[in-house]
Amino acid sequence: MRDFGYKADELFCESVSVRKLAERYSTPLYVYSRKTFLEHYGKLQAAFRSVKPLICYSVKANSNLSVLKTLVRAGAGLDIVSGGELFKALRAGVPSRKIVYASVGKRADEIEYAMRGNILLFNVESLSELEAINMIAGRMRRRQAVAIRVNPDVKAKTHRYITTGHRQDKFGIDIDRARDIFLNRAEYTNLDICGIHMHIGSQILDARPFVRAVEKVTNLVQRMKSRGVGIRWLNVGGGLGIIYSGESPQTAQGYAKAILPFLKKLNVRIILEPGRFIAGNAGILVTKVLYIKETPGKNFAIVDAAMSDLLRPSLYEAYHEIVPVSSRSYGRSKRIRRYDIVGPVCESGDFLGRDRRFIGLKEGDLLAVMSAGAYGYSMSSNYNSRPRPAEVMVTGRRARLIRRRETYKDLIRSELS
Ligand code: LLP
Question: Does the annotation count 346 as an active-site position?
Fold first, then answer.
């Protein structure tokens, strides 16, 4: 997280003091570095330069409009999974021909909305969906371009909730069935079945499962081409892992080096769908210690952020580094203690970190939960009727509020009584 670091004793985001942001905007607070989003996007672009891919940032990772606009202005397309994400993508000003749409459960109204929006490709995940899109396209008197999401049946080493390319996962269509669809494509009179999509999972640290999957799908592209099926797009998905604590994921360069030899053999346009790689290390969650509670069993630092703000630790037992915003707050104390960093929500599973060592942690201290830029705010909720936090985007010396903190009124805005 190069754009988050200490100057003297204080944590900075680019050239802005995180403590000052917390004082100004209160906590819990998401803080993002614009530079990091752009740098990570640029790294992938550079690594794949030789095939000039369309990089469709995966909106679900962090869908704040300012984040989307930042990337769209840099030339990114967007990968969406719902009508809501399409709405946000269009609001962010992305050219509709740079939108790709995956999801195992697209509703008819969402399919129509995306067709009216003239998106580039639907990534189709089942035979029934293919038929539904064909029918809707017919009704709307158009020929719709689609890609088949293939389930390449590889095991990616990651949390079992976020693997998607194994045959027991709900995603995609097995390779044999995909082949049959291509060969029988004439049956789908309103569709132009012109692409292959894969996405094998998320937070994948090692290039090997990607290589195995890409090898399988490039074989399919080649076999289909030899039988006269014109495939124009190959979407290799997202899934690149990042460093949360000591992992050593493949770099963008390493990833490109591993899969480019396969991609270059094909005369197709390449799409990438990174989410976490771009957003993960571009954000932190800042929170305040409300109470220190030392019990015979454990020490707890009870903070004002909770699983409702950052669900990853509770849902996947994901590890996020947690650091003091101001190390001066150690004072003279040299007392190292272990704490569970927990939120106020009424669940024992509401923790942000377990058994973390701190020196002289005390009430009122600010903590930063690192690498919270992806799947942080976007997975937040109002559980326990907690208003969602604010979000701030830092650019150099400037900080801009890009989402205000929710109010109590926001909590009942859509309720009817
Ligand atoms: N493309 C598709 C079709 C996807 O389903 C996903 C993520 C991506 C691209 C982007 O994957 P990424 O590059 O971010 O790994 N909530 C989980 C992650 C779920 C990922 C879901 N799909 C987490 O917090 O770890």
Answer: yes
